[in-house]
Amino acid sequence: MSAAQAIEPRFIPKIWGSKELEPWFPNPTEPTGEVWFPAGELLIKFLFTTENLSVQVHPKDDYAALHEQSLGKTEMWHILRAAPDAKVALGFTEPVGPQQFRKSAESGEIVDLLEWMPAHAGDTFFAPAGTVHAIGAGLALCEIQQNSDVTYRVFDYGRDRGLQLEKALEVADFGRHPGASVPRLIGAGSELLVECAYFVTEKAHISFPCALHAGYAIVLEGSGLLDGQPFRPGTVWSIPQEGSRIGPESPVTLLTTRVPVS
């Protein structure tokens, strides 16, 4: 029987990043914005923000394959920590047209047309490809996404980075977004957060030894042993097909995610 394997993280500096990564990672000397864990068809990230991220949109699979030789990028965010006024933006307060989208992106007015939603620890937001979105300042979150890095920036607060407005116009949904996801209880201590064609993500609170199903386990809180190997917050594990045994030494909170069987 094979054992769970820890995935090595990759730390990505960002101008909007933070030096406050604990308790998931040691605090760095330079601002870190993202911590990546490649997970097959998925990419698991931790994000830490001290400034607003760009207004952006990701393409769907067919457009990304044709224009970027890549997968599309549908993603979800689970909020781990939030400043009192922290927000995320998903979709628009009212539907917009292509001309209004272009003009507002060029002027920066698009920031005011977006639907900004309060973000609190424990909230989950689902962003299908095509959703115009932005992540605000003062957040730590876990992002689960298709394994793609294709991003079309629409507005970037005057930072010296390129925009991809023409491509964004071709892939953007100009409508509203339903808002935060509503978790569904699926068993004692477990909730279904997001289920889509690309990933199924659950949240589990574990206080006694039990089995984990195949996929990936993201440790948010607690410590213990996974197939006899020590784990701590901020570790991400690949769980083999035959599953794994977890033995908590303190109450554990996990996100588990997997690619659905087609």
Quick summary of this structure?
The chain is mainly beta.
Distance between the termini: 25 Å
CATH class of the largest domain: Mainly Beta
Outline the biggest β-sheet. Answer: 7 strands, antiparallel
- Uncertain stretches of 5 or more adjacent residues: none
Which radius of gyration do the C-alpha atoms yield?
A: 19 Å
Q: How large a portion of the residues is in β-strands, by DSSP E?
A: 35-45%
The SSE order reads: EEEEEHEEHHEEEEEHEEEEEEEEEE
CATH architecture of the largest domain: Sandwich
Total number of helical segments? Answer: 4
Q: What form results from the Cα inertia axes?
A: globular
How helical, in percent, are the residues? 10-25%
CATH topology of the largest domain: Jelly Rolls
Strand order of the largest sheet: 1-20-17-22-15-14-13
Average pLDDT, to the nearest integer?
Answer: 97
CATH superfamily of the largest domain: Jelly Rolls
Q: How many separate domains make up the residues?
A: 2
Structure class: mainly beta
Q: Tally the beta strands.
A: 22
Structure description:
It contains four helices and 22 strands. The chain folds into two domains: 5-171, Jelly Rolls (Sandwich), CATH 2.60.120.10; 184-258, Jelly Rolls. It is globular. The protein has 262 residues and is mainly β. It has helices at 61-68, 98-107, 110-113, 165-171; strands spanning 5-6, 10-18, 32-39, 42-49, 55-57, 75-82, 87-92, 114-118, 124-127, 133-135, 139-146, 152-155, 184-187, 190-195, 200-206, 210-212, 215-221, 224-226, 229-231, 236-239, 244-248, 252-258. The chain has a seven-stranded antiparallel sheet with strand order 1-20-17-22-15-14-13, with no helix packed on it. Helices cover 11% and strands 45% of the residues. Strand 18 (224-226) and strand 19 (229-231) form a beta hairpin.
